[in-house]
Amino acid sequence: MSDHQSSADRRDVPEELERALAAEVSLGARMRHTAVGLAGGCGAALVGLLWATEPGPLPVRTQAAFAGLIAIGLAWAVFAGWVLTRRRPLYARDRVLGARLALAATAATGAAGTVLAALRASAAAALTTAFVGAAFAAAAGYALARAHSRRRALLRLHDAFRHEDP
Predict the structure, then answer these.
(1) Do 66 and 58 meet the contact criterion of CB atoms below 8 Å apart?
(2) pLDDT tens, 71-109?
(3) Comparing C-alpha atoms, which of 96, 47, 99 is closest to residue 73?
């Protein structure tokens, strides 16, 4: 079969959808998810090792902080594993899930930092911590809004392509 016939026989994918899906399954995207998974897993393991090797019992607040950091690291590792085991394009579902995870981790960290600063530092330190936490949460919220927008655009392209077929 010639190249002309094989290309005529296959369904033509709109160029925009093909480009978008190629970016989702590219080597660069997979390497970024691998790095996120390794960072999350290694961070959780490091905090777990620090906690396990403490010579004496830690204060409850420190144990809660360590547990929270381990949970966040493991969540990123599980997220990356989920993305990397998918064999087909996710239509930016991974971006939405990652942005939700970032927003949750940022909000929890900002709230915990603000409470700690309020309890142990000055009012100015508590306000500064709250402001920085809110700024990071706003950035994570913006990332979530963009991820939802990207997913909707990809799904619209996908639906348009499906309805185009005879």
Answers:
(1) yes
(2) 999 999 999 998 888 866 677 788 899 999 999 999 999
(3) 47
